[in-house]
Structure formats: structure tokens, C-alpha cells
């Protein structure tokens, strides 16, 4: 597998040549007025007539009130489960409000992520990993040694379950991320119970068959610095995620777009609202009934955007395949081949990232 250690991006000026190992460092160069050619992103030819829109009042982004899922009132809970199922089927995505992760903890976590990216480059480079299962992996772009075009993004990915890991710096990161990870892990598992029921399965079906007691939880923080030519760059290309769910928070700067009915929909979020994205393994497990959402990150020239994704995923050794209870050999045969989660991650890491290019490789 190719290394994820970021290549040095060279920018020449009249008197010197400077090398950068991160987009943040590149963006802070005082004489940067245009982006290096290696960052110039050409839209897929099929997307020449793409439509970008704000949410439609007649087809609004679904909002799920977590408190109604956790309620003791059967009718309210049943309706919420149906709403979750509809959101997963029609959007692959929903906003989650009134959950139990406090606003103060979310804000503290955002501050700690920024503090990490503000460390000296040499300190961050200590975590420049080479493997998808490295406990802490810092880098830039997606697969910088393989990408034909580099993406305007730095990242750090930290495995926090089944074993907790944390960078040594900045001060306070470990304590905050440990509490945040514990709360979001619980939230993700509770959501998956509702999703199980929405599929007509028993409450703990996904939890049990995906072996979530030893499941993978990863914090994936992305930094998108200001870009002098945002119309020519891309933070992340259209893609879907591995795992079951992705619980996403942002710092208030817009840039996330989801693909819905052939249109790119701009997604902003209110304070303390999680954006819950259906990921590839939930699509596989549901045999395609629920769709992983294709999304992308665009950049701006005026502000730094940060997003923090909490990946809720099967254990690495779990073979993810369509639930047999949802299959019928005649009317609903298996549409995906089974594959170990770790093998799926390796497949994603070694391929060009675009749309559902990885998921399509396991479709029958």
C-alpha cells in the first residue's frame, strides 16, 4: 500500500524555493496568490451541468429529535423510528437535535482540534502515518502519494475504540477527546438500535452482528484553510464513507454539500446539532435499502473550516454482508458480497476516491 506521508509541495518565488507538507502551512505563505497546479481540481465531465442549491422548503433536510427516540411514549418513539428509516432511505443523511452530548463539550472539542492543527508542523509530523489502522495518523489530501490532484485539506485520524488513543499535545486534548468519544460512541449505538428497528430487525441486531463491543470508532478531524482560488480547488471530492454512521460537527463555516436527487445541497448546521451520515457498511447490511450519502467539501477564500467526524463502524475483523433476514432469493437477493471491514478500508485507501467507487467494487 502506498504511504500516506504527505509529499512536499514546492512553491517557487524569485529568490527562494519553499516546501510545504501541509495545506495550512501553504495557505499561510505570505506571497501565496494562486494555488500550485497540483491542487487544481477539474470537475468530473459528467458533472458539467451540476446544480448546487440550498435546501428546498418542499423537500427539507430531515431533522430527528433524539429525545423522541429515547422517550417512554411508544407512539412518539415509533414515529421517530419511521422518520429515521425514511431519512436513511431517501437522503442517507439527517440532522440530529436534542441529544445528550452537551454543547459545552462539543465546543471544547472543536477548540482542542484547532489547537492540534495549530501545533508546529514538526510536532504534527510525528503522527504522519502509513497504515489505515495506525492509532493516530496525520496527513494532507486523501492519499497524497496516489492522488492525481491534491485536495485542500489537512487531517488527523485517531482510533478511540476499542482502544483509546490520543496525541500527547495539545494540553487537555486527551481528557476532552476521551469524554467526547465516550459520549458519541454511546449516541451512535443508540441511533443504530433505532435504525435496526426501522429495518424490521430486533433492537440490538446491528450492534450484535457488527460486533460493536469491539467495534471501530475513529475521530477524523479535517482542516480546510482559506484558499486564494477556491473555484479551482476542492477540500474533499464527492465520496461516501466506510463504516455504519458518521456523526459530524462543524465550526460554523459552510462547505459541506450532500448529493440529493441529482443536486448538490448546501448543508449548514445549528449549534450542537450533529449531522448524521449513513455510511457504506449500513448500505451493505441493509442490502441497499438505506443509502450511504455522497458528499463533498468545498473551500472558501475567507475563512477556515473545520469538521470533526466520529466514525461508528464494525469491528475490523467483522465480515459485513447483507442481513439474511432482509433477503429473499427471488424478490430481494443479496446485492453485495461480504468483506471484512479492514479489507474494505484497505480497498478504499488504495483506490481513487470519487462517488461510490469503492462501494461499487463489492456490488453484485
From TrEMBL:
This is Fe2OG dioxygenase domain-containing protein. Residues 1-29 are annotated as: Disordered. The lineage of its organism: Eukaryota, Viridiplantae, Streptophyta, Embryophyta, Tracheophyta. SUPFAM superfamilies: Clavaminate synthase-like (SSF51197). The keyword Nucleus does not apply. It holds the Pfam family 2OG-FeII_Oxy. PROSITE patterns: FE2OG_OXY. InterPro entries: DIOX_N, IPNS-like_FE2OG_OXY, IPNS-like_sf, Oxoglu/Fe-dep_dioxygenase_dom, Plant_2OG-oxidoreductases. It comes from Vicia faba (Broad bean).
Amino acid at each position: 500500500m502506498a504511504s500516506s506521508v504527505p509529499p512536499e509541495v514546492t512553491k517557487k518565488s524569485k529568490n527562494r524555493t519553499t516546501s510545504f507538507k501541509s495545506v495550512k502551512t501553504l495557505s499561510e505563505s505570505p506571497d501565496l496568490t494562486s494555488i500550485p497546479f497540483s491542487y487544481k481540481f477539474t470537475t468530473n465531465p459528467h458533472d458539467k451541468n451540476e446544480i448546487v442549491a440550498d435546501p428546498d422548503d418542499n423537500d427539507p433536510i430531515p431533522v430527528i429529535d433524539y429525545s423522541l427516540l429515547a422517550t417512554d411514549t411508544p407512539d412518539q418513539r415509533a414515529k421517530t423510528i419511521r422518520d429515521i428509516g425514511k431519512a436513511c432511505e431517501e437522503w442517507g443523511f439527517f440532522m440530529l437535535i436534542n441529544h445528550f452530548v452537551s454543547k459545552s463539550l462539543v465546543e471544547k472539542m472543536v477548540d482542542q482540534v484547532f489547537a492540534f492543527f495549530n501545533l508546529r508542523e514538526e510536532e504534527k509530523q510525528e503522527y504522519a502515518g502509513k497504515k489505515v489502522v495506525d492509532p493516530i495518523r496525520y496527513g494532507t489530501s486523501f492519499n497524497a502519494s496516489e492522488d492525481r490532484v491534491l485536495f485542500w485539506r489537512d487531517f488527523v485520524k485517531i482510533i478511540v475504540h476499542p482502544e483509546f488513543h490520543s496525541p500527547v499535545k495539545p494540553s487537555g486534548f486527551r481528557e476532552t477527546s476521551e469524554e467526547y468519544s465516550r459520549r458519541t460512541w454511546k449516541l451512535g449505538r443508540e441511533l443504530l438500535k433505532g435504525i435496526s428497528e426501522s429495518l424490521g430487525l430486533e433492537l440490538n441486531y446491528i450492534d450484535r452482528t457488527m460486533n460493536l463491543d469491539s467495534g471501530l470508532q475513529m475521530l477524523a478531524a479535517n482542516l480546510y484553510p482559506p484558499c486564494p482560488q477556491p473555484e479551482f480547488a476542492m477540500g474533499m471530492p464527492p465520496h461516501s464513507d466506510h463504516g455504519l454512521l458518521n456523526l459530524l460537527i462543524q465550526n460554523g463555516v459552510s462547505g459541506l454539500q450532500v448529493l440529493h436527487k441529482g443536486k448538490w445541497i448546501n448543508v449548514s448546521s445549528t449549534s450542537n446539532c450533529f449531522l448524521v451520515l449513513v455510511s457504506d457498511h449500513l448500505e451493505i447490511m441493509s442490502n441497499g435499502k438505506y443509502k450511504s450519502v455522497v458528499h463533498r467539501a468545498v473551500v472558501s477564500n475567507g475563512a477556515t473550516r473545520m469538521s470533526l467526524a466520529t466514525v461508528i463502524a464494525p469491528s475490523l475483523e467483522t465480515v459485513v454482508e447483507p442481513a439474511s433476514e432482509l433477503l429473499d432469493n427471488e424478490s430481494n437477493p443479496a446485492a453485495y458480497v461480504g468483506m471484512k471491514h479492514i479489507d474494505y478500508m484497505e480497498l478504499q485507501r488504495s483506490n481513487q476516491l470519487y462517488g461510490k467507487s469503492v462501494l461499487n467494487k463489492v456490488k453484485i
